[in-house]
């Protein structure tokens, strides 16, 4: 199956939920990284990453050799998406609190 690499994409006000089942899936195929911008006033302080092979599949928490991959965040700051997400087909980002973030996804 052929797949065309997407261009860079900015997803403004992407909803972050504190419950995995309620979190919207992101199509990551073709993207190699990006940024997460936490807006001013946000109460989100941590982001945890879950990946799957199919959009409606079972999402599994992402780990590396040190343990679960997560990012500690603060309002009004930008953070790179973890390098461990490279190769993920579908992604769900779960926060410790509900809120929104801006995502800047980049392709090669």
Task: Describe what you observe in this structure.
- This protein is mostly beta strands and 108 residues long.
- It is built from no helices and eleven strands.
- Strands 2, 4, 5, 8 and 10 form a five-stranded antiparallel beta sheet that branches. The chain has a four-stranded antiparallel beta sheet with strand order 1-11-3-9, with no helix packed on it.
Give the helices and strands, then pairings:
Elements: E1 9-16, E2 26-27, E3 31-38, E4 46-52, E5 60-61, E6 63-64, E7 67-68, E8 70-72, E9 77-80, E10 90-95, E11 99-107
Antiparallel strand pairs: 1-11, 2-10, 3-9, 3-11, 4-5, 4-8, 4-10, 6-7
Q: How many strands in all?
A: 11
Largest sheet: 5 strands, antiparallel
Number of structural units classed as domains: 1
Radius of gyration: 13 Å
Question: What percentage of residues falls in helices of 4 or more residues?
Answer: under 10%
How big a fraction of the residues is strand? over 45%
Number of helices: 0
Mean pLDDT: 93
Distance between the ends: 20 Å
CATH class: Mainly Beta
CATH architecture: Sandwich
């Amino acid at each position: 199956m052929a797949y065309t690499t997407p261009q860079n994409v900015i997803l403004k006000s992407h909803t972050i939920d504190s419950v995995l089942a309620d979190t919207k899936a992101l199509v990551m195929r073709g993207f190699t990284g990006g940024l997460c911008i936490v807006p001013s006033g946000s109460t989100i302080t941590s982001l945890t990453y879950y990946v799957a092979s199919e959009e409606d599949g079972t999402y599994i928490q992402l780990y590396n050799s040190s343990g679960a991959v997560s990012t500690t965040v603060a309002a009004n700051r930008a953070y790179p998406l973890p390098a461990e997400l490279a190769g993920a087909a579908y992604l769900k980002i779960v926060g410790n609190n509900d809120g929104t973030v801006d995502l800047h996804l980049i392709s090669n």
